[in-house]
Amino acid sequence: MTAIARLAVYAGSFDPVTLGHLDLIERASQMFSDVIVAIGFHPTRHPLFNAEERMGLLRQVTTPFPNVTVESFSGLLIDFCRTKKAGVIVRGLRAATDFEYELQIAHANADLCPEVDTVFLPTRTKHGFVSASLVREIASHGGDVSRYAPPVVCAALETKFAKKA
User: Is 118:28 a contact under the CB 8 Å cutoff?
Assistant: First the structure.
């Protein structure tokens, strides 16, 4: 496999996309020539936002980054990277506990496809405790998540939880 010069993939469920995700996307877009933000789908998970909603939200919040595209995949991330000819997987680390899990996955990916490297980016301190599940939980109780998610995501959360009420 011949990798595209500096194509990186940043994958996740992004349910919803947070300011922490967006910070990593911005930083990756400065480090790599092209970045694919890849929404992974897992058949046993039941996300708050469906595939189209997550793709739409991500596309809206990544418009400032011309070298970033949004796609989706199912199956193994490493297979998606092979298909796209990506040379790098970008993973964010919030805490030391993330590192053990992420390192295990990076080792497995390297074993399956040695030509794809994993790059770990630590989150900025202000985003270190923010997770999509935390944002969903606060929003589900009517809490203000504007410190944790982009405005378009806050509006989508408000709409989503108003419909469930």
Answer: no
Q: Determine the 3-state secondary structure of 3 from DSSP.
A: coil
Q: Report how far residue 165's alpha carbon sits from residue 81's, in angstroms, rounded to the nearest whole number.
A: 40
- pLDDT tens string 61-78: 999 999 999 999 999 999
pTM over 0.90: yes
Query: CA 132 to CA 30: how far, in whole Å?
Result: 24
Instruction: Pinpoint the alpha helices (H) of 11-76.
Output: 19-31, 51-61
Say how far apart CA 16 and CA 156 lie, in whole Å.
Answer: 9
List, in order of start, the domains of the chain with CATH numbers: 7-164 (3.40.50.620)
Question: Cβ distance 116 to 88 under 8 Å?
Answer: yes
